[in-house]
Amino acid sequence: MSHHFDTKLAKEDPSLNVCDFYLFEGAPGHTVMAMTVNPDAGLSVPDVLHKEGLYAFRFDLNGDSREDVTFNLQFGDARHADGEEHAHIQSYKVRRATGKDAARSAAGEVLIEGETEKVETKNGVRAYVGLAPDLFAGDAVAIIGWIKTYYKEKRYDASHFQNRKNFFGHRNVTAIVLEVPNELIGKGKVHAWATSSLYGHAPEMQVQRWGLPLYTHIFLTDPSKPELIDKFNAAGPAEDIANYAGVTAEFAENMSTYAGSVVNPSEYGKQVVARLLPCALPYELGTEAAFDQAAFNGRPLGDDVMDIMLQLASNTPLADGVAPDLSRTRKEFPYFGAAYMKEEQVGVVPVPRPTK
């Protein structure tokens, strides 16, 4: 639910639904970027990537919240994997674009190409696209109830988080994982985000943007402003402060007021805005990634980001009692562990596709 089912088009076509984005150090001198799509892949949705989709990792190198380097992927037609009716194989190409080309559709030189469900390696670049465990952990029922209480009853209610159930446990996603030499990105501190777009017979239309986990699911949830999430996902981070500073500060001010957790809610709201906007993931290349209460520096696979964002929104030690399944990670590329097998998913109910 970091960004599972975030926009109308993502609800209609989960292959364009960017669920999560990870950024961390891989092999020495290399950075790993990973996005996941297709929430509940193999149960309620197929494992296919959109053949007119454009999936991109975008990096701002100079602090202007505009991409300077982009790694983008496009996929070919799907075919059935040998001996497996419900598994599919697709070809893909990874391109790297810089400068003005970084913001253009499918621009750049081809770095590597290959097929899904295989690890591909070329000139220090590694790529993997395929079924993987969903490493986001969160009590979806609890956070929805917590936010509804905030808006409808104007109060803070931590009792929602006694449920202690990981809605995403034993579910799979499609993971897009790249590991590249740092020099292909830049030096020092970068700010990154991931996007999915439609790009085929018409000009590119961005479907979804992932900057920080749960930002839209917490701070852009005002039922009187339903347009905010679609507006956010259709654009880049350059206008985030102008567009969302007010609603972000208001949520943090009110939630911390209801919780009685700060002396000066207005000042706390400003601090949260400074922490979250522009909405992009900061990372110091070549350092150990950590997404925690003290600071954001990339995001490794195992950090419990829901607890961090809940605490930031309320300034309370709020936790949902569930955490990522670290047994489903690995130390070597592609870092995601094996996808959950059918026998491990017995009793896991397919997610009904949201319709609105």
Description:
This protein has helices at residues 8-12, 140-153, 215-219, 227-234, 240-259, 265-276, 305-314; strands spanning 20-25, 30-37, 53-60, 69-75, 79-81, 84-89, 91-98, 109-115, 119-122, 125-133, 172-181, 189-198, 205-210, 281-284, 290-291, 296-297. It is of the alpha+beta class and 356 residues long. The strands form four sheets. Strands 3, 4, 7, 8, 12, 13 and 14 form a seven-stranded antiparallel β-sheet that branches. It is globular, with a radius of gyration of 19 Å. The two termini are 16 Å apart. The relative contact order is 0.19. This is DUF4331 domain-containing protein.
Structural Rg:
19 Å
User: Roughly what is the average pLDDT, rounded to an integer?
Assistant: 94
Number of helices: 7
Categorize the overall geometry. globular
Fraction of residues in helices?
10-25%
Spatial separation of the terminal alpha carbons: 16 Å
Tell me the β content. Answer: 25-35%
For the largest beta-sheet, the strand count, sense and barrel status come to: 7 strands, antiparallel
Protein name: DUF4331 domain-containing protein
